[in-house]
Every structure is written in C-alpha cells, then in structure tokens.
Amino acid sequence: MCSINKQTLRDLNRRDFIKSAAWGTALSGCSVSRVNTKKRKPNLLFVWTDEQRADTMAAYANSKIHTPNLNKLSAQSVVFERAYVTQPVCTPSRSSVMTGLWPHANGCTKNNIPLPLEIPCFAELLNDADYTTAYMGKWHLGDELYRQHGFDEWVTIEDMYNKHFRPGRDRSKRSDYHHFLLKQGYQPGSHNRFSRSFAARLPIEQCKPRFLELKACDFLRRHQHEPFMLYVNFLEPHMPFFGPLDNEHDPAAVTLPSNFNDPLEENEPLRYRVSREACIAKYGREEKDIRALIARYWGLVTQVDRSVGAILKTLDDLGLADNTIVVYTSDHGDMMGAHHLVEKCVMYEEAVKVPWLMRIPQTQGRLIKNPVSHIDMVPTLLELMGKEPADSLPGQSLVPLMQGGNVKQDHVFIQWNPGNGSLKVKNDGTNLASQDELQKAKNEYSRAVISPDGWKLSLSDADKCQLFNLKEDPGETTNLFDSGCHQDVIRRLTQKIHHWQKSVQDDVNV
C-alpha cells in the first residue's frame, strides 16, 4: 500500500487536489486505483436538515443515537469538528449556505424575508449548463412553492409560508407533499393545509423524510447518465419534536447536557434569561421532561438517517458514488436542554454549531479541528467543482484545510439580527425586566467571534456581552466578560470583530 506523508500532502497545489478528488488520484495515505473516466464533471448531492445540533452522530461524540448511515458517511468524509452557522435561525443561515453572502449582505436578516431574485445561489454561481439541478424539501427563502434560483426541478413539502409569498403569487397553491397526502386518502385541516403536527403523526412511510427519499432516488435514477446537482433539505429534527420513531431511544439512556442546570446568572443576556423562563414553561423543568424531549429529537434524527441511507444506497447502486461530492449539514442547531433552553436564536454552542460532512470522491476521511464557517461553503464547493470562487464572495475555500494546510481567515464570525421573534416570554409574563427593557433586548444586535485558541466573544449593542474560554468551559457556564481578568483577550477579539465588520461592510455598532 502506498503512503503519502504530510509534507507531500501539503505540497499538493489546489489544482492537484481538485483533480485527485474528482478523478481518482490517491490523496491522503491510501491506495486508490485510478478511475477510467472521460473526466466527467463531478455530481453534487447536498443533504441538509433543520435544527440538527452537531452532537447527533458518532463523529461528534454521540454513540448512543441510532445513526448508522450518517456514521458510515462520516467515516468516509472530511468531518469539520467545529462548524458554525452565520446566524442561528433558519432564513438567514440558509441564505448564506445558498449564496455565500452574509445575511446583512443578501438582505435575509430575519425569517421569511425572500432572498432577492437577483442574488445568485450556488447553481447560478456555478453556471454550468451541463448540469441538471434540483431542489427538494424546505426552502424558507421566499416563494416556497415556486421553482427559482437556477434549479430545473423543484419538489416542495411546506405549506405554512404562503402568506409570505411575493405579490402576484397564488397563495392557494399547495406543496407536492400536500398532493402526495391527498393521493393517500388524507383530508387537510383548516386553511386547506396539512399541519406539521399532522404530518409528524403519520406512519413513517408517509412522513416528509420518506417522501423526499422517494423523490431524490427517482431523480438519481432519471439523471444517472448526466452531471447533476441535487439539494435535499429535510425539515426534521425541527419541532414539533415528535414523530413515528418516538420510542426508538430510551429516555433513561439519554445523557442530559452537562450545563442543564446552569442558572444563567444576571451577567448573561436578558433575552436569553427570559427565553429560559419560557422554555421551562413550555417544555418542562424536570430532568424526565427533557430526557423524553431529547429522546424524541433523537428519533427524528434517526428518521432522517434512514432516508439518507436509502439515498446513498441508490447512489451506490447506480455506480455514481465515485463521482459524486456528498455534503451533509444543518441550518442551525438546537439547545435541547442546554442551560435549560430549547430551540435556537442564541449564541451558545449548541445553537450555532452544526454537523458538516463532505465526502469527496477517492479521498480518505479525516477530522478537521479548526473552527470553520458556513460562509465558506459556496467557495469550497465552487473550487471542488472546478470553478474559481468569485472575489465578491466574503468566504474562503476550505480546500487548503482538506489538504492539511491552513487558510487565511482562521477566526469564525456569527451574526445576530433582530426581528426573528426570538424574545419568548412565558404566558403570564416575566418579572425579570420591564416592558421597555424587554423591547430593548428584543431589538438587540450582536456579533460573535470564535478564535482558533478557544476563546469566544459576543458583543451586543443593547444587552449583556459574553466571553467564554471554550477549552476550559465548553458548556459556557461562566461568563468572563465582566471578570476584569481578560481585558487583553476582549480587546484583541473586539478588534477582530470590528475589522471583520469593516471588511464585509457590516455597519452595526457593537
């Protein structure tokens, strides 16, 4: 068996890497036979989920959850151990994954803002007519049920965003999944719509993941002889946090987050503390409540895992795996009991960190520990698929990290922009603050940075700031911002945030 040492790996230039990744040259310490091919363009299978935190598979230190297919995929993939979103809520995060632009730059700073039609998504940026392209599943970037942004095929599952359609769109239109359920004999409820809760209670064969699985496998069969680009976006494990595999995991076997009992002292952001009260009221205070919630959440991840496994098996059966880049990630995480919070919209690790796997043909899996950002997704994919990333993109290709080298930007930045309904107050109100203080916290902007040496600083314009040493305090239980002991770190990372803001024309004053 041949062996390629680290120095040789570093000496490979980017063009060599792309050529070896796509056409079968040995790359990283493994013996790989050269594929006899006419240099067919690589396919892309991009699978993502909604609200899946990183630690939901073995590659991210969770061996209890049942994800055999994701475990197999991760063993074959480049695994980014510390992958972060650009903003921990759906639409803004999705806008960055699809366009390579920060939310403030593409205009999608809060949920349900339509992505401007003139801003290109990845299929348009690649701009290669040889590819057949498809988007399937949740979109949440405007005009949900209408094909757009360079995709040839469009398969839809969501009917709750019609009220946000642009003027002139037919709001009575219903999704492909809606019509699938009609053919199964089901009758919609109010507003002529199948709710998410209704769909989640159906047998697994009629739930959204299986529907998308069938559509994706059909696409692969129909387009196996031509270059293709297929995005499949599952809603799960997003709320309502239940489904057909609710009994897949024993709540007694669930490990509660180590910071489950963190009280969130007064030096933590008011918005977070008020949300904690609301989460306790909604999801329960006791350990048994959160264990049961997490077990159901894991069941949803397992449900996705089964459909991902079927899609990857179809890829294998058709002989396409050796020429298909596979990406797996999520739009944001979920607190799932950490700090006794549930859902997202905060800067804590559980909400901003996501799984990110990239299986590249004829390359060996490896673990990358450097912090990386979703803002780098588009430049990385462009380079892997043979196109030079545009200078207008603020991110960077992560190909050098995959080669064993370094990248220019080694700090990760995260935004929070208001208007996402992120201030959740329990029904009987809160005694933590006045209405004026609550309104101020609701409208706060924050910008965070994660450094390679494990520090995390979050600056807010209207709420408490945060500083955590992630190496010593991975659960973020001790906010060091006002400790008076780390002014040099605060000063250094504040400069990093402000320099980054200037470079991306982000004029928020934090």
Topology:
Blueprint: H1 6-11, H2 14-23, E1 43-49, H3 68-75, E2 78-84, H4 90-99, H5 103-106, H6 122-126, E3 132-137, E4 153-155, H7 176-183, H8 196-200, H9 208-222, E5 228-233, H10 270-283, H11 287-317, E6 324-330, H12 349-352, E7 353-354, E8 356-359, E9 366-373, H13 377-384, H14 399-402, E10 412-416, H15 435-442, E11 446-450, E12 455-460, E13 466-469, H16 487-503
Parallel strand pairs: 1-5, 1-6, 2-9, 3-4, 3-5
Antiparallel strand pairs: 2-7, 2-8, 6-8, 10-11, 11-12, 12-13
Count of discrete domains: 1
**Superfamily (CATH H level) name:** Alkaline Phosphatase, subunit A
CATH topology: Alkaline Phosphatase, subunit A
Radius of gyration: 22 Å
| Total helical elements | 16
Query: How many strands appear in the DSSP assignment?
Result: 13
Instruction: Please report which band the strand proportion falls in: under 5%, 5-15%, 15-25%, 25-35%, 35-45% or over 45%.
Output: 5-15%
What structural category do the secondary elements indicate? alpha/beta
- Poorly predicted regions are 1-13, 22-37
Ends: how far apart? Answer: 55 Å
Q: Shape, please?
A: globular
State mean pLDDT (0 to 100 scale). 92
* Name of the CATH architecture: 3-Layer(aba) Sandwich
Could you give the order of the helices and strands? HHEHEHHHEEHHHEHHEHEEEHHEHEEEH
CATH class term: Alpha Beta
| Largest beta-sheet details | 9 strands, mixed
Q: Helicity level, as a percent range?
A: 25-40%
